[in-house]
C-alpha cells in the first residue's frame, strides 16, 4: 500500500493528521506500552480509540490491519523507504519505534539484544500469565469451583516477579541506568496485576521490594502517567 488512505482501517478511523504515525489502541496494559513509548520518544502521532468493550477489534477494517483482532496496532505513513508500514503486536511495535527514533534501546548490539530479551520475557511470560491471574481471580474465572488453575497462575506469577526482582538488584531500570523498552513492556502489566486485578496479596508482591520501587519510578514518569489514558477511555 502506497498511501495511508489505502488501508481499510483508515475508512473506519480516518486520520485528521495523516502525516503522523497512527495509533489504534485502548488503554489496556498492551495498549499503554505503545502509548508510553510514543510519549517517551516524542514522535508525533495520532491516537484512535478502538473500543474493545464494543468488540471493535473484530470488525473488518481492524482485522485488515491485525488479523489477530487485538490492540494495539499502528500505521506509520513514513515507514522504511518512505512507504507506509502497518504493524501489530506490541513487542514488535516497541522494537520498531526504538529503531526508528534511536531512543529507548542501547545502541550497541549486545545491549540491544539483551533489551529485546526482556521485552520477550514480558511477551511470553508476564503478560500471558498475569492475564490469567486476572481472569481467574477478578473476572469470570473466579466462580470456577476448581481452584487449581488460579493456583497454577499465581505460583507462576510469583516466580516471574522473582525473576524481575533479581534482575533489578543494583539497577534502577531493567537495563541499568537507562530506561528502555524493556521497562515499558513490563511496567503496565505489573501495575495491572497489583492495582487493577488487586492481586498483590495473593502473589505476595510485598516480597519483591525492588519491583515495587521500580514500578513506582516507572509510574512517576510524565510519559507513563499520560499513557495510562491514551486513547482516552470512553
Question: How would you describe the overall organization of this protein?
Answer:
With 234 residues, the protein is α+β, with helices and mostly antiparallel strands. The chain has 2 domains: 100 residues, 3-Layer(aba) Sandwich (Glutaredoxin); 116 residues, Glutathione S-transferase Yfyf (Class Pi), Chain A, domain 2 (Up-down Bundle). The protein is 52% helix and 8% strand. It contains 10 helices and 4 strands; from the N terminus they run αβαβαββααααααα. The chain has a 4-stranded mixed β-sheet, with helices on one face. A hairpin with an 8-residue loop joins strand 3 and strand 4. Helix 2 packs parallel to helix 4 and helix 5 runs antiparallel to helix 6. It is globular, with a radius of gyration of 18 Å. The two termini are 31 Å apart. The relative contact order is 0.15. The model has no long low-confidence stretch (mean pLDDT 97).
**Total strands:** 4
Mean pLDDT across every amino acid position:
97
Question: Main sheet?
Answer: 4 strands, mixed
Q: Helical amount among residues, as a percent range? A: 40-55%
Q: What is the beta-strand fraction? A: 5-15%
| Domain module count | 2
The CATH architecture of the largest domain would be Up-down Bundle
> Element order, helices and strands?
HEHEHEEHHHHHHH
CATH class of the largest domain: Mainly Alpha
- Biggest β-sheet: strands ordered side by side in the sheet: 2-1-3-4
Termini distance?
Answer: 31 Å
Classify the fold: give the CATH topology of the largest domain: Glutathione S-transferase Yfyf (Class Pi), Chain A, domain 2
Pfam family, one: GST_C_2
GO molecular function, one term: transferase activity
Protein name: Glutathione S-transferase
